[in-house]
Each structure stands twice: as C-alpha cells, then as structure tokens.
Protein 1
Amino acid sequence: MFLRQDTRPVRVGNLTIGGKNEVIIQSMCTTKTADVEATVAEILRLEEAGCQVVRVTVNNEEAAAAIKEIKKRIHIPLVADIHFNYKLALMAIENGIDKVRINPGNIGKREKVEAVVKACKEKGIPIRIGVNAGSLENHLIEKYGYPTPEAMVESALYHIGILEELDFHDIIVSLKASDVPMAIAAYTKAAEVIPYPLHLGITEAGTLFSGTVKSAAGLGALLSLGIGSTMRISLSADPVEEIKVGRELLKSFGLISDAATLVSCPTCGRLDIDLFSIANEVEEYISKIKVPIKVSVLGCAVNGPGEAREADIGIAGARGEGLLFRYGEMIRKVPEATMVEELKKEIDNIVKVYEET
Ligand code: SF4
C-alpha cells in the first residue's frame, strides 16, 4: 500500500506533492482562460482563501497564450487542463505552466506523446493523469461492461505505462467518479499498486451543500486511511468555497498546519445568547488566521468550560454575559454586547504568541 508518505515526491512549481509533504489543496478557475483579467482576479481570490495549486482549462490557442501573462501575476503553481491536443500542451509548457493534466493515451501518435514528455522533462514539469469514471477508454468499457474501480485503476496503469516507457516518472494520478463508493474503491485499489501521489476528488459532486457532504464523505474516508497527497473539492459554486471546504476537511484530520479551528455547540434549551451569529462571525474572523489554534464558542456555562478545555481560547455564554476561557481557565467575564470583540482581542494575542515562538 502506497500511503501518502510513501509516494514519490513530485515537484509542482515551488511545491512538492507526495512524500512526507502536507496534503495540497487545489481548485480550478471558472473563467475563460483567455480572459486574463478575470482569470487572474479569480486566482488571487483563491490564493487568499488558501488555494495552493490552481488549474485552468486550456482548450484553445488563446487560452494557451494567456498562460504567460497569468503566470506573471499569480503566486501559486498553475496547471493546464488539456484534452487530446498535444500542441496546446506544448504551448502551455512553453508559456511557463507548472503542471499539465493530460492523459498520454489520449494524445494520439507516439511522436506526439514523446514531444510532450520531452518538453515536460526539459522544464521539470509533472503530468497529472486524470482518470474519470465517465470517460473510460472504450476497450475498458467493453472489458468490464460499465465503469468499475478495477477499470479505473487499469486505465490509470495504462496511461502510467506509456509515460514510464519513456522514462518519465513525475506523475500524479487522479481517479475521479461522482459515485462516492466507486471513487473510494478506485483510490484504495490505486494506492495498492501506484507509487505516485494521488490527487483526490469526487467529480461533479454537486452544489455547495450536497457537494460538500459527498466530497467530505469520499475524501474523508480516503484521508483517514492515509491516502491522497493533494485534492480538489468540486462544487457547483464559487471555487473559493471549494478551498474553504478543503481546508475544513483537512483540519478534521489534523492535516493542515496553517489554519485555525472553530469548535461551536449546536445549542439547546440552556442557551441565553445569540450563538449562531456569534459562531459565524468568529468563524469568518479566524478563517484568515494562519496558525493552528482552536477557538471555542459555546452556548452556556454548564458544559461550556469543560468542552472549552481543549481550546486555546473560548467563550461560554451566560445570561447577558460571556465567560472568556484561555487554555481551559476562565480569565474574565464580559458583557454580551462586547463578547465577540473581547474574544477577537484574545484570539489576536494568542496568534501573536504563536507567531513569536
Ligand atoms: Fe446546550 Fe450549553 Fe451544550 Fe451549548 S454548551 S449545547 S447551550 S448545554
């Protein structure tokens, strides 16, 4: 079994995916790539949200040409998503792309594959093989009858074989399906036989709500097994939401070191404060924090202090006031009206301590 830490480390721009490195969060632009202004603006918003690698579609020459200018204005590795057209891949590589997502078996003649591999080797660029349950090769559909995890892994091995035959090993592999159990099975089988980093994703997962649940179910199961070196949450929503969900998912498994976590209670009849709005405000506030602190927002002082003990800083509501806790010890009472501001001040102090040590 090639767990995350056992996979071959693969360089993508200034990052390394696989090996002992943290799980990298990716997203994909929704803009027309040739529209440089819109694409750069979207990438900068993604960067601010914590996106570490971003993919753009390269479906025509204008898109491939735009890569040069986009690269100058962003700060994270850029990936070209290419289907079939090796000339677009060569253009993207020439224009400074950091990774190419293309399936070598779909490029066509061997000379074309060789040209792409040669260009990638010269520039030190990896190739992501993207297997999708919905677009498996005809010979695999004929063999298996319909998409199966086995067929998906066989497809990945087929494309990997083409690259390995050309002595190319800077490979990342994804095996996406919109069916969660199928994706889990495909990735689990792939981890048994593929030594390259796996890029996780549930494709066409759905809207912000349903796609988040499906992605968390599928990717959570895989991450908990130690599978997956990079991932994308695919949502029919603003891609910034994909990053927020991805970071939250990694936090759940302690797989991210530059994010703060919120603990908040579901509330019950003991509640005497407006906890939902407080929790949302605090969540928004800590989303920009880049240190791994835990903040708790609890509805009452009955269970609050006990539940807040594991948090670095927290607040528990009481009638008309809040009790501020730091590392499980109550530090002071604050009026409800200033509770959130007081909590933010304490959060800032803790962040400062983290940053100084
Ligand atoms: Fe209810 Fe208090 Fe627990 Fe929140 S912390 S769920 S208000 S008992």
Protein 2
Amino acid sequence: MGVIYYNGEFHDDAVSLDYNDRGYQFGDGVYEVVRVYEGRLFTAREHFERLVRSAGEIKMSAPKSVDDYIQICEQLVDRNDLVNGNIYIQLTRGVAARNHAFPVPATEPVTLMYTYTAERPLKGMQNGVKTISTEDIRWLRCDIKSLNLLANVLNKEKAVQAGAVEAIQIRDGVVTEGASSNVYRVKDGAIYTHPADNLILNGITRRVIKECSQELAIPFHEETFGHDDLLTSDEVFISSTTLEITPVNQIDDQVIGEPGPIVKKLQQAFETKIKMIK
Ligand code: PLP
C-alpha cells in the first residue's frame, strides 16, 4: 500500500480505522482525488479549494490549509516514488458513538490520504467508450463532493453490467452528469454542459475544459439540455480527473460514432496543460 498520511502522521503500509468513524457509519465526510503526472500534481490547488468548500457545506472545517494539503501531497508522492497515479484524500467528521446528530463537543476531523499508481486511460480517450443513460436518483446537493456515493455506485454498476464505462444520469428529462464524470454535447461547433449548480459536481477537469474552449475560441455554453438532445449530438464526451477527456461513442443502443474534431482539439489543449505543470 505504501506510505499513508493519517491524522497528521505518515505511516508505512497500514493504519487502523475506528469503527465509530462517522465516515464509515454515515458517509459523513468529503473527499478529493488529485492526479499525478510524471511525479507532479495536476490542478491540486483547485482540488483542495473544492475540498475546503465541500467541508464547509457540510458544516465541517478542514483542519489544514490548501498550501498544507499540497505540501503533504508532495511528500506522499516523494515517499511513494509515485510517477503516474492518483492521491485519494478523505476528511470525515470524526469518531464518536453512533448518533445521527453532530457529536457534542465537536470531534476532530479524521484525515486520510494515500497514493496509488494509475496509467492514463489512453484507449478510451482514443476510441471512445460506451455509456448507458439512467435516472439520476441522487440528492439535491451534488455540488458537494461527499462520501455518500451510493446512488453513484448503483448507477455505475448498472453501466458495468451493461458492458459500459459510464452511466449518464438524467433528472426530469435533463442530462445532469455521469456517475463519476461531467457530460458534454457538441452541436454545430459549440459545447454544451449542465450549469455548475446544486445538481452536478463542478468538476476540476470541467473547469480546465472551459479554459481550453476559451483559448480555442470554441463556444462553451453552461446550459441544460435534454436526453433527446444528447442523442442528436455531433459529439458527446465525459470528463473527470481519472478519465480526463473521454469521447462517448455509444449511449444505450444509439451509436454516436468515432471521436470528433472538437473532442480531439480539447484533448490536445489538455495535453499541453499537463506538460506545463511546474
Ligand atoms: N461528477 C461526479 C459525480 C464525479 O464523481 C466526478 C469525479 O469524480 C466528476 C463529476 C468530475 O470531477 P473532476 O473533474 O473534478 O474529477
């Protein structure tokens, strides 16, 4: 497993978690996944700013500053000799006898951070992936990167059972996002994606894509669109820290086709940003 950061200390290989940890019993906590390319952190500041925000939205305060978290990540990368992979970061409300309401007095948040090797998903990025569409059965605060992922887990499993990579979620006929990604359609040279409101997670990759679109002068519209619109798109793609920018070539039985010109341009621009990491 390698070196793990747990509550202020680095541990070799293993840590013991308390069965009364509220993350374990209630999913009462928040998390992030930061990508590492060639030993360097990608968009770590944005991830930790989002972590601090997510914590605040569930009335927890992150025990460390964004700069501290970045420094811990750098140490974890060094200590684990991580080249290409991810860092998982989790904050829970802490350890207390099981009771739904917040513990009184407040508990110290429990922090866990570890790294793992992961190659880039190049095959899907080049060829596109199959997806399914399914009902979005999540709560109404999808903007919080919460540990409560049961609805996402069930939808992702539905996709896997159908031989697909992602489940595109639909709420009241509107495409929200994937079980673990943001969703985009391209029509007549413009990109459309759900607004960053309470119904989706404002992906860090989504923000990079927005920036790339602006640099490439590709119109980027944060507007809702329907399930029907999705199926008549010129291109469809999904994005996340681990999937990067992945074209969608099939939704249920509907074939969308080969990766198109817009997604390829975005992938190139994204690649340039990876190469620019300091
Ligand atoms: N939406 C959901 C529900 C996710 O779980 C994720 C990532 O895990 C994303 C979107 C993409 O976010 P990011 O680009 O920050 O990884």
